[in-house]
Specification:
Structural class: alpha/beta
Distance between the termini: 24 Å
CATH superfamily: Vaccinia Virus protein VP39
Strand content: 15-25%
Catalytic activity: guanosine(46) in tRNA + S-adenosyl-L-methionine = N(7)-methylguanosine(46) in tRNA + S-adenosyl-L-homocysteine
Mean pLDDT: 92
CATH topology: Rossmann fold
Order of helices and strands: HHEHEHEEHEHEHE
Keywords: Methyltransferase, S-adenosyl-L-methionine, Transferase, tRNA processing
InterPro entries: SAM-dependent_MTases_sf, tRNA_(Gua-N-7)_MeTrfase_Trmb, tRNA_methyltr_TrmB_bact
Oligomer: single chain
Radius of gyration: 17 Å
Pfam families: Methyltransf_4
Protein name: tRNA (guanine-N(7)-)-methyltransferase
């Protein structure tokens, strides 16, 4: 996941949690190499990454345990998905779902998304999901937050005009932070039509494990939708 613009190329956050179960370790050894994007710095041709033609390519950055990404890939077999997640345990959970449901329209990147964005062509992505990124609540760490000038410019470059950026958080301060920086960028237009739009999840929203935890702890989610100008 990417943090603020002065991140200096560093990845912030955990890469591994508890020890992987045997099956998850097998998936990381056998399935991940098959689905991982090609390494290196060569440009990527998103539509050519999938075994069958796709009408559009969507990108999720920081997919956690993969609940949302798996649901969207299953309900949209004609769309190609790229998921970025450096956390090993989350990647293993996603791969388990890919194997269980025989999902063929999904590629993954198990490192910093900042290494992928420069390799994508301009206007190649039809939708971007940034769901519950690390809020970095301490003031001295806020420069590590995903939403920042450099990140927004990188996303805007690869998104086609009209493409949606969907952002969800359960942290009030982060929602205000994101709104202020996205508005200031001039690259995206907030799509809210009613005062309570930000309380309403998107159509077909499957929820995530993190979101369920936030609700149990009394933190209501906020759903923000922006369109690439």
């Amino acid at each position: 996941m990417i943090a603020e613009q002065d991140r200096g190329g560093a990845f912030y956050g955990r890469r591994k949690g508890h020890r992987l179960r045997d099956n998850h370790a097998r998936l990381m050894a056998e399935v991940l190499p098959r689905l991982r994007l090609p390494a290196g710095t060569e440009p990527l041709a998103p539509a050519d990454l999938f075994p069958h033609p796709v009408r559009e390519v969507w990108l999720e950055i920081g997919f956690g345990g993969g609940e949302h990404l798996l649901a969207r890939a299953r309900e949209n077999p004609d769309i190609g998905f790229i998921g970025c997640e450096p956390f090993v345990n989350g990647m293993a959970k996603l791969l388990a779902g890919v194997e269980e449901h025989a999902i063929a329209n999904l590629r993954v990147w198990d490192d910093d998304a900042a290494l992928v964005l420069p390799r994508l062509p301009e206007a190649a992505i039809g939708r971007v999901f940034v769901l519950y990124p690390d809020p970095w609540p301490k003031r001295r760490h806020r420069k590590r937050r995903f939403i920042g000038e450099e990140t927004l410019a990188a996303l805007a470059r690869v998104m086609r005009p009209g493409a949606e950026l969907r952002f969800a958080t359960d942290i009030d301060d982060y929602a205000a932070w994101a709104l202020a920086r996205i508005d200031r960028s001039g690259l995206f237009a907030w799509q809210a039509e009613r005062a309570d739009d930000w309380r309403r999840p998107w159509a077909g929203w499957p929820g995530t494990r993190y979101e369920a935890k936030a609700l149990r702890e009394g933190r209501p989610p906020m759903y923000l939708t922006f369109a690439r100008r």
